[in-house]
Amino acid sequence: MHQANIAHLKKDVAPYEKTDTRASIRQVINTIGPLILLWYAAYLCLSVSYWLTLPLTLVAAGFTVRTFIIFHDCCHQSFFKSRMANDILGIITGVLTLCPYEQWKNSHAIHHATSSNLDKRGVGDIWMMTVEEYVSAPLWHRIAYRLYRHPITLFIFGPTFVFVFQYRVNRKGARRKERLNTYLTSVLIASLYALIIWAIGWQAFLMIQGPIFFFSGLMGVWLFYVQHTFEDSYFEEEAEWSYVKAAVEGSSYYQLPKVLQWITGNIGFHHVHHLSPKVPNYNLERAHNETKPLQMATTITLKSSLKSLRFRLWDEEAKRFIGFQEIRRPAAHGEPMAEAISGPRPSLEGK
C-alpha cells in the first residue's frame, strides 16, 4: 500500500457513507422477517421430526448473524440518518442477538480506534500476545493463553460466555446510560424468552433456540477472528501506528460465496468497514469495487482462512502471526528474539 494511496483513501470512500433509508428498511424486512418465519417453521417441524427442525435452525442462525450486522450498523449510526431510529432499532436487534446496545457500541468504538495498536489492546478484541510477551510470561499465564486461544474455547465455549454472561454485566466505569441499557436489554431478553416458553414449552424452546444460538455464535466469532487474524496482518506500537494502515492492512477482505456474503451482510469487506465505519453494510462491496487501493487489501477465502487457526502469537520482528509450534525455546540471557523463532519471515515492505 503506497503512501499516496493511503493519504487519499478516506476521502475516496466518503461518498459511500450516504445512508439509503429505503435500502435500510428493505434489509430490516428481508432479515428479521425471515428470521421470525424460520423460527416458527422450525417449531412446526418439531411435530414431524427434529431432523426437519435442525436444518431450519442452521438457516435461522445465518439470519441471526445478518440481524447482528444491522445491530452493528446501528451502533455506528450508519444504518439510518436519524440517531433515534438507529438507537431504537439497535436496542431491538440487540435483544434478538443478546447484545446490550450501549455497552457493545462503546466497546466496539474503542476497538475501531485502537485496532492493530499493540499499546492499546484489550477492549473489544480477541486476546493476543506477542512472542516476546509470551516467552517472558510465567507458566500459568502461558497455559491460560494457550487454553484461551484453543479453537474449542474461542468458538464453542467463548460465544456462550460472552453472549450469555459477559454481556449481562456492565463494564467497569460504564456510565449510567450504558448501565441502564444493559439492565433493560437483559429484562427484555428474559421477557421475550419467558413469553415463548409460556407459549410452546421450555423443551421446544431449547430445541430451537439452542442450535440457533450455537451456530450463530460460532459464525459470528469466526468472522471477527478471521478478519483480524491472518498471516500478513498489521500491528504496530503507538508511535508507528496508522489508522488507515490498520484498516486496510490489519483487516482482511474475506471473499465469500455470494450467498454467504449476503447472509453475513457484506462484513467480509472488513477493510472497508474499518477504514470508514459510517459506510452502511449494503455499500461496502461497491466501495471496495470502485476504490482501487482498497483492492490491495489481503484477500482470504473460505479455504485459506482455515490457516488462521494455527496463528497464535504476533512476531514483532517478522511482522507476522506464528503458531506455538514455531517457538523453539524462550529467549533468555540476552539471546536475540530472532533465535527463539523458527520458520521463514516474509517481509511486508512495499506492500
Description:
It is a single chain. By secondary structure, the chain is mainly alpha-helical. Helices cover 58% and strands 4% of the residues. It has 15 helices and five strands. α9 crosses α10 (202-226).
Keyword list:
351 residues, mainly alpha, three-stranded mixed β-sheet, two-stranded parallel sheet
Structural class, from helix and strand content? Answer: mainly alpha
Arrangement of strands in the largest sheet: 1-4-5
The quaternary organization reads as: single chain
Low-confidence stretches are: 330-351
Radius of gyration: 21 Å
Main sheet, how many strands, which sense, barrel?
3 strands, mixed
Mean pLDDT: 90
Instruction: List the helices and strands in order.
Output: HHHHHEHHHHHHEHHHEHEE
Q: What portion of the residues fall into strands of 2 or more residues?
A: under 5%
Number of helices: 15
The total beta strand count reads: 5
Describe the global form.
globular
